[in-house]
């Protein structure tokens, strides 16, 4: 499960289209009740949902390409995708992966932290966001 950096969670913005599609994903029998879907639902419940036209360009949405910098300065480029589109080798991260649900709705300059399997913590700061392709 992901956690947000620095005490209070950063504000979370989600487009109406992404919110509707993600709600449908969460309710799909394949994912309903799955811990990753529950974590995503918790993120969505605290999100401010905006019309697509009002979404700032620097906010991570579905299919956004995100340049991130980790704690040791390593840059990573990730694309936030639906589970069936995920491919870690090409940087396509599922919204149901801990880092994916944590990135959703963040804007440039915001950071996330989440636990690693070995007990450590990974940290990423959003450096830039390429807006999603047209819906």
Automatic annotation (TrEMBL):
The keyword Protein biosynthesis does not apply. Pfam families: GreA_GreB (PF01272), Rnk_N (PF14760). Residues 56-130 form the Transcription elongation factor GreA/GreB C-terminal domain. It comes from the Bacteria. Keywords: Kinase, Transferase. GO terms for biological process: DNA-templated transcription elongation; regulation of DNA-templated transcription elongation. The keyword Transferase applies. PANTHER family: REGULATOR OF NUCLEOSIDE DIPHOSPHATE KINASE (PTHR30437:SF5), TRANSCRIPTION ELONGATION FACTOR GREA (PTHR30437). This is Nucleoside diphosphate kinase regulator.
């Amino acid at each position: 499960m992901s956690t947000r950096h620095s005490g209070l969670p950063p504000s979370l913005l989600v487009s109406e289209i992404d919110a509707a599609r993600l709600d449908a994903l969460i309710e799909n029998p394949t994912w309903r009740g799955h811990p990753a879907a529950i974590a995503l639902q918790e993120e969505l419940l605290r999100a401010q949902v905006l019309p697509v036209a009002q979404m700032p360009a620097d906010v991570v949405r579905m299919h956004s390409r995100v340049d991130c910098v980790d704690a040791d300065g390593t840059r990573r480029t990730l694309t936030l995708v639906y589970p069936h589109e995920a491919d870690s080798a090409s940087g396509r991260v599922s919204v149901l992966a801990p880092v994916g649900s944590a990135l959703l709705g963040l804007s440039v300059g915001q950071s996330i932290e989440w636990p690693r399997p070995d007990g450590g913590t990974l940290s990423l700061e959003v450096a830039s966001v390429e807006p999603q392709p047209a819906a």
